[in-house]
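User: Here's a chain of 357 residues. Predict its fold as tokens.
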Amino acid sequence: MKHEVVFCLCAILLFSISCNDSGVSTDGPAGSQPVGSMLLRFAAAPPGIITVTAKLSRPSYPDRILNLALSDSTASGSFDDVPVGRWHLAIDAKDTTGTVRYSGETDVDVHPGATSNVSLQLLPTTGRIVIVVSWGTPSHDPSLLLYYPFNGNANDESGHNHHGTVNAVTLVADRFGNPNRAFLFNGFSSYVNAGTDTALNPRNALTISVWIKYNGGFNYRHIFTKWDIVDGVNERTYAVGIHPTNRLRFTISRDGTDASAVSVLDSSVLSVTGNWIHVAATWNGGTMRLYKNGIEVGSGFINGMARSPNTRTAVGGILGRNGDPPLYMFNGAIDDIRLYSRALTQQEVQDLCSAGN
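Assistant: Prediction complete.
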């Protein structure tokens, strides 16, 4: 029985990028021409699929082969130094016996300084992979729903225009010492309201990534939420924050209404105050994970997540519905918040943690 799944692949065309390529040299008849790179990202593979093989081919050039091992149904890798022009891309997804369960192929144009976003859909009836190619900029990961770099404002730089409304925040230096590049939250009235757009309600997977400098407190302190604490009103989705005992906490609601119908993942007791740390929470449709500075500090399981169409997405606390008072407000600085509609791999989390360092 075939399974249906959607894979995402980004081909970032740059003149230099880190290499995971297992192919051979691309010196060919046009070896002096400009080159680009392809970054492949696969997510939500069906049960039993453990490897994905990608092959780039082109007349008069050696084939390029990339073998990716899946972890938690995801994988990533790259082709580097690919001469610009039209290449043939073939994808095979294999099970535990090495049998090809899904296949697909298409032509992909490599352009210098551009990005190719490729969506791969595995068809359950035929076993084919349908590949759709579009072009954008490297910052526009199609799974990135919201991105607040807080560069002097609360503008969303994901390309989706979920611009935030700020209240009682103060601009401060970021983790690199750059002035006015992060927001300081006072612990009782500061927040950023990202609104109630249903696009910020990923149903099948998600990742929340954020940098924080926590000043401490005696109650729950929430970093990023789409949550309400009122029972029976279908207003709960997800929340990431800090427990009073200095544990990171990641919460997902299974039905949106009942305070007991939630999955709570706590880390062990951690050093979370006084310094900038990177926090990430991922959910792949089953497993929840928490990371501190790129290291996994907790995991658990949940099957299904609720949708909260009227609850405001918030940075720095719980806003709930319009008219609700803010609750459990964050005390400290926050920067570089990202919300994805997929579960990033640990390597991708580590890449975000080390970005710019």
